[in-house]
Design a protein that fits this description.
The protein has 5 helices and 6 strands; from the N terminus they run βαβαααββββα. The protein is α+β, with helices and mostly antiparallel strands and about 200 residues long. A hairpin with a 3-residue loop joins strand 3 and strand 4. Helix 2 crosses helix 5.
């Protein structure tokens, strides 16, 4: 994994740009997927789903997320009234007609990020609460060594000054714990994809 400049996301021809002009690019990362080709994005997504979510993260990352959910419950950050379809309209409402009829990928109540769309080389999901409206964008691009690689961009629209302070406060935790754990999980998912069921 390597951290990239925001321009690595903003200059790529992603469809997500059509509906996120009012969002800020918070983070952009690339993940190593050796041997990947241009048509392997669906295989990468399948590998990520087979690898599991937070349940498969190492204990420091799971601990941080558990603390975050506890604080959210205590202060009411994650009430449904503050989420997608309530305080915040889904980005699906902004989609052009061709994207609105595209696949969204799987969804369930256990997944905090809700699908916006899923295409052959990019996918987007969103989440909103009292702190922020955030989008996780996954894209599939050719890297420097000619292999294709997974790119993740995190786009945010903080909810006022509190949301901006919140994002600043959790930045060190993202860089020191969350992203390194995510990298190990996602890159291992690609390496182990042939052994993944289904």
């Amino acid at each position: 994994m390597s951290r990239l400049e925001a321009i690595a996301h903003t200059e790529a021809k992603w469809r997500i740009h059509e509906v996120t002009a009012d969002f800020t690019v918070e983070d952009v990362w690339s993940f190593s997927t050796p041997g990947a080709g241009p048509d392997d994005f669906p295989a990468m997504l399948a590998a990520l789903r087979a690898a599991g979510g937070l349940d498969k993260q190492p204990w420091p990352a799971k601990f941080l997320f558990a603390v975050r959910w506890k604080l959210g419950a205590l202060f009411g950050w994650d009430k449904s009234s503050a989420g997608i379809g309530h305080r915040i309209a889904s980005l699906r409402d902004r989609l052009p007609s061709d994207l609105r009829t595209a696949s969204t990928g799987p969804d369930s109540d256990r997944m905090p990020l809700k699908p916006i769309y899923e295409l052959e080389r990019e996918a987007a999901r969103e989440m909103a609460n009292k702190t922020v409206h955030t989008v996780m964008h996954l894209g599939w691009l050719q890297g420097e060594n000619d292999d294709y690689e997974l790119r993740m961009a995190v786009l945010v629209k903080p909810n006022g000054s509190f949301g901006r302070r919140y994002m600043a406060a959790i930045a060190p935790l993202r860089y020191l714990i969350i992203y390194p754990a995510l990298t190990r999980q996602w890159e291992r998912a690609w390496r182990d994809r042939e052994q993944s069921p289904g």
